[in-house]
Write a structure and sequence with these properties.
Layout lengths: L3 H10 L7 H12 L15 H11 L1 H17 L4 E7 L4 E5 L5 H7 L9 H4 L3 H8 L3 E4 L12 E8 L5 E9 L6 H26 L4 E5 L9 H4 L3 E4 L4 E5 L1 H7 L3 H5 L2 E2 L7 E3 L1 H18 L4 H8 L3 H15 L1
Antiparallel strand pairs: 1-2, 1-5, 3-4, 4-5, 6-7, 6-10, 7-8, 8-9
């Protein structure tokens, strides 16, 4: 009977990397990073100082993503899953998990500070997602290390407002009865959470700009929900000052285009104004929070995770627009 190590070596020897991203990752793990599939040590962990630095580098993004991580855990926690947010180096900077599972997940290394880069752990959800920059699932024996073959991991990348890889969300489980099909359903949920965080982060970084949403159906392929929102940020002169990764992809934009203040008029006819839809959605959120709090401004601000002063500014803006 072939061992896991034998399976990996055979696939690499048959040069299957061109046909399979999993085998390509095995090849990187085995040859480029010189890892041993039979390595049994737990994942390397960053020091307390290194973890703190990694969290600091993400700045406000950690706070911004917190609510979405909570929501994701509510969706997958009851089936024995752990939610991990890792930075682009593969260091787990935040996690969500049931207390009854903490000992198990800590042992597996699904814990803050654990390093899940491909260089350290070979083929795995977080590390391989960082390399591929695309949502993926690493199910059980698709992992490089034999010690990880009881894990099923689904991961999705998060790109920053400059379209660069910022972080990865991973949902992992060590349940023996977790099927490939169910993991695919989890992947859809993980991708949705990643894209929502990406959108929030983009809007946060261009809070003083007008937001434009690409809406030409012919440009939005069947994978648009995977690749993310196609958003632009424009200034008062209608010059494009920001664009998400997907917006750059479908319009063929580069950093140079953005840095050289590309006129929005070049894209006219292929976009629609998203500002009105966003304003209406924000107004509904404010109204719901105020209703929930019985009109208490402070309580509503806490519910929305913004300051009281910010909520007052938003209310003043809504009143001006209503006049």
């Amino acid at each position: 009977m072939k061992t896991h190590s034998n399976v990996i070596d055979t696939a690499i020897e048959r040069d299957e990397a061109a046909r399979s991203p999993i085998v390509a990752s095995w090849q990187r793990s085995r040859i480029l990073h010189q890892l041993n599939p039979d390595e049994s040590n737990p994942p390397e962990r960053a020091s307390a100082k290194e973890l703190h630095e990694a969290q600091d580098q993400l700045g406000h993004f950690l706070h911004l993503s917190s609510a979405k991580l909570d929501q994701l855990f509510v969706a997958v926690g009851d089936v024995g899953c752990s939610v991990v947010l890792a930075n682009k180096e593969g260091i787990a900077v935040a996690r969500r998990g049931a207390k009854c599972d903490d000992t198990t997940f800590d042992k597996w290394g699904l814990w803050t500070g654990a390093i899940w880069s491909e260089e350290s752990e070979g083929t795995n959800g977080i590390g391989t997602c960082i390399v591929e920059k695309s949502p993926l699932m690493i199910h059980k024996d698709q992992h490089f290390h034999s010690k990880n073959t009881n894990l099923s991991c689904t991961a999705a990348p998060i790109f920053d407002h400059n379209a660069r890889l910022l972080a990865v969300i991973d949902v992992s489980s060590c349940r023996a009865d977790l099927t490939t099909g169910f993991s695919q359903l989890i992947l859809v949920t993980v991708v949705d959470a990643a894209r929502r965080i990406e959108t929030d982060n983009f809007i946060k970084n261009f809070s003083k700009s007008r937001i434009i949403l690409a809406a030409e159906p012919s440009l939005l392929d069947n994978h648009s929900h995977i690749r993310g929102p196609a958003l632009f940020a424009v200034d008062q002169d209608d010059l494009v000052i920001g664009a998400t990764r997907y917006a750059r992809d479908i319009y063929g934009l580069t950093d140079a285009d953005i840095n050289n203040s590309l006129p929005l008029s070049i894209l006219q006819g292929k976009t629609i104004d998203f500002a009105r839809d966003y304003t209406l959605a924000e107004r509904r959120t404010i109204q719901q929070s105020l209703a929930k709090s019985g009109g208490n401004i402070s309580a509503a601000a806490r519910d929305m995770e913004i300051s009281r002063a910010t909520l007052y500014r938003k209310l003043s803006k809504i009143r001006r627009q209503s006049c």
